[in-house]
Amino acid sequence: MIKRSLGEKIFDVFNIFxxxxxxxxxxxxxxxxxxxxxxxxxxxxxxxxxxxKPLSSTIGAYRLxxxxxxxxxxxxxxxxxxxxxxxxxxxxxxxxxxxxSVKKMLYRxxxxxxxxxxxxxxxxxxxxxxxxxxxxxxxSLWALILPGAISVYNSIIVKTAIEGIPDSLMEAAYIDGAxxxxxxxKVITPLIIPTLAVITLYYGVxxxxxxxxxxxxLKDNAKLPIQAVMRAILIENERLLNTNVVREDGTMDDxxxxxxxxxxxxxxxxxxxxxxxLQKYFVKGVMIGAxxx
Length: 293
Fold this sequence. Notes:
Blueprint: H1 6-37, H2 41-46, H3 60-67, H4 69-101, H5 108-120, H6 125-134, H7 152-163, H8 167-175, H9 180-188, H10 193-209, H11 212-217, H12 226-236, H13 238-241, E1 244-246, E2 252-254, H14 258-287
Antiparallel strand pairs: 1-2
Helix pairs in contact: 1-14, 3-14, 4-7, 4-10, 4-12, 7-10, 8-9, 10-14, 12-14
């Protein structure tokens, strides 16, 4: 064994201390929100310092949150957007990335420039609204899926991953009689699964956190996704935030403060639960193409 010097041991101790501090700083806000959502509002408002456990544990804020009918419909709507939107996102992104990755394509530079132009410039809010209304998508969940069905940034990531595949594989497939569709889905797609997993996470988080388009394009509250419902509860529905709920001991409790934290947990926990299943692909996927040579 190599004998370690005193300086190396001190460095390791200092490094471990810094890492533990970073972990605490990262995790504590989530822990605080969970504890606050389970706390008594009056005790929470008077509490100072670190919150290490719920103050007089109660699930009243969660009962009030899930008693709101739009919360249940919000989950149903966002699941619809994810189930139908993610496959459309992935297929269109694959097509766009494959087209940009073909080196011998006619007018390749012009086509790539034209695609990149849409990444920096758009028609604006009013033209987009008029376009969606003229297409018959207004007040439809498809208005949250089709207009933003493809991201140029995500297409560039997939394009970089495709360019990392040896050309000999695609040339061999051409010789065997495969067309571009077969090459894309049977040769290329299985080789870029890590990148596609990352792109799926990007699109999924984007759909889950989106509320602005729902507010603009949906007039029926029953069609709002969960994030738009949360916004309505926190900002527009003051009556709900100030509702007094009778507890089991017969006293009155104001949930206006703790319901905010309960909504944060309800709105973020499902998407956080998805990340561990994609974690093993995440670093590998985003690093594809980062190193050349």
